[in-house]
Amino acid sequence: MFASPIDYSCPPEATQGPIRVRPARQVPEWGPCQAVASVDSRHMTKVRVLVAEKHPLIREDLRYLINAEADLECVGVAKNGRQCIELCRQLLPEVLVVDEILPGADGLAIAAIVGNRLPQIRVVMYTFNPEVCEVARGFGAADCIAKDTPVDVLLGALRQAAPAPSPRRH
Fold it and tell me: Which pTM was predicted?
């Protein structure tokens, strides 16, 4: 929906001939190969997402995947329940992706706390246990995504959970 076609082509001179090392001051900022997006993203507001996940690799993968999207931004990551609640209060993300089980507080408790104290933050539960989904929705979670689901489903759920953009005045 928000994905834009990207041209990764390089000019012929960038792919031919020997590799030369130039002094840093002469190297162009982006180099000879540039990704050129066909959509002007200057006026696009990004959905602010906080990730709460106990596994470091999954946590960092989610950060990377979210930041790779033109319309999403990972504003922070939390590794435990206490840090998650603290970051929700400080950063006020639009969407929180929360692992079902976190040290210090489980995802269901966090969904309930965020739903009661910070209702403007939409919660997306991220779990291996599909039985948790119904309970999470009962606590106010906007969605529940299984961890073995393709990443584009998770990214779609983040977009769906985000509040509708307010009209801009020019």
Answer: 0.72
